[in-house]
Amino acid sequence: MTTTADIADFALGLDFADLREETVDELKKRVVDSLGIAVAAMDEAPVGVVGDTVAAFGGEGCTLWGAGSDSSLGAATASPPDAAMYNTALVRYLDYMDSFLAPDETPHPSDNVAGIVACGEYADASGEDLLTAIGVAYEVQGALAWAAPVRDRGWDHVTHTVISAATGAGTILGLDRESLRSAIGIAGTAHNALRVTRTGGISEWKGIASANAARNAVYSAFLAKHGLAGPTNLFEGQKGWKQVVSGEFEAEFSPAERVHDVMTKKYVAETYAQSAVEGVIELAERETVDPDEVAGIRLDTFAGAKLIIGGGEGNRYEVETKAQADHSLPYMLAAALIDREMTSAQYDPERIRRDDVQNLLRKVDVSADDELTARFEDGEMPAVVAVEMTDGTAYLVEKEGFEGHPNDPMSWAQIERKFHETASERYDADRREEIIETVRELDDRDVSELVALLD
């Protein structure tokens, strides 16, 4: 039986020295990837709403990333919970973040990073402390996603995030065992999120929900730090998390090894779309496909992809906003075939509304296949894309995964290339290299040195 005591004992018992060198390396890649994505989102309007809201109340203790002299933000600092809210919104909003691939749940462990960095800055923590706490959060979130999926019971995956982020925040803040149990109990009792966020007509809240979870997690950790006792029987108690949210489960924790099962996104697209998008781009380039001559696109995929972005949880053919587009397989496949890429540019409102993609997306058919579902549950991310032309010619591409999948993880060179692409509009080459170097040397640096580069 998994309890708050089990999670607290795991978190407080994990030392930096317990992490394998390869695990530390992967954690550093997660930090670089998260920071680059955050930089790329600094001018996005919904993130700006979060920034304006945070700035309206003022606050000190933590840096708001990107709040330098050329920023429109009304403040450069905020309290740790508000900094967690804003900075996590940066990491999450573009839908370019990482994902943990469990059979029945696909959370985004990078949702934990910014809140833990904020707490690390507040606590004047070392880089080793930061990497350890991030490793704790990745492990807790992965363990819950694997053993206690909540999607089919109507809960959003950030229901896991608030627990993992509270555990990581409490770890880097130096909470003792009982205080950490209280932080986990407060976070997991008070902040369960509904799946309606990602069903039906999707709103901009989809890209902000995990930021709210990170804020609530950090606030829960500070309440416990200042002495507030929480429901430490969160999971097993009467009307507790197991009875109401997840059902019975038993989670197992390793020395942050689950970070090796985290994927890096190659495309700005929902997790389950990565293989299909890569496949349709490869096919379009290989066959020099003329989009105007396409009669239809058929995607055979696994059940989770059909459910979430293929029409199982709402109409995915009515696409008017970015929030709807990046959760619509018809849109993503149509745009990728036409443009031969899937970046933030494909989510510009003018691009979404253009007739070429609006007409083509209605020719996309998405079907779930039992064999592909079994392969996904065995660790692949399969996709079979067929494109039929108006002259009757048919083209086919089959994918087992994509560049960035745990079976084909990105190297440091690939991670750095992605970082330079995402951060280039704000930071010059020297600053970008300095950020990468600081992260790669985090074992010998402090959190304050990293945060100072994110103005």
Q: Mean of the pLDDT scores? A: 97
Name the CATH class of the largest domain: Mainly Alpha
Largest sheet: 4 strands, mixed
- Topology as a string of helices (H) and strands (E): HHHEEHEHHHHHHEHEHHHHHEHEEHHH
Alpha carbon gyration radius: 21 Å
With strands numbered from the N-terminus, the spatial order across the biggest sheet is 6-5-7-8
Which regions are unreliable across 5 or more consecutive residues at pLDDT < 50? none
User: Percentage of helical residues?
Assistant: 40-55%
Question: Between the first and last Cα atoms, what is the distance in angstroms?
Answer: 44 Å
The CATH architecture classification of the largest domain is: Orthogonal Bundle
Count of separate structural domains = 2
CATH H level, superfamily name of the largest domain = 2-methylcitrate dehydratase PrpD
Shape call? globular
CATH topology of the largest domain: 2-methylcitrate dehydratase PrpD
Secondary structure tally: strands: 8
Oligomer description: single chain
- Beta percentage is 5-15%
- The total count of helices amounts to 20
Question: If you had to describe this structure to a student in words, what would you say it looks like?
Answer:
The mean pLDDT is 97. The chain is of the alpha+beta class and 455 residues long. 49% of the residues lie in helices and 7% in strands. β7 (383-389) and β8 (394-399) form a beta hairpin. It starts with a helix and ends with a helix. The strands form 3 sheets. A 4-stranded mixed β-sheet has the order 6-5-7-8. A two-stranded antiparallel ribbon has the order 1-2. Strands 3-4 form a two-stranded antiparallel sheet. It contains 20 helices and 8 strands. The protein has helices at residues 4-13, 21-40, 45-57, 80-93, 113-122, 127-147, 158-172, 177-190, 209-225, 241-246, 274-287, 303-309, 322-325, 329-339, 349-353, 355-361, 370-377, 412-423, 429-440, 447-451, and strands spanning 62-63, 77-78, 99-100, 262-263, 294-301, 364-368, 383-389, 394-399. α1 crosses α8 (177-190), α6 runs antiparallel to α7 and α7 (158-172) packs antiparallel against α8 (177-190).
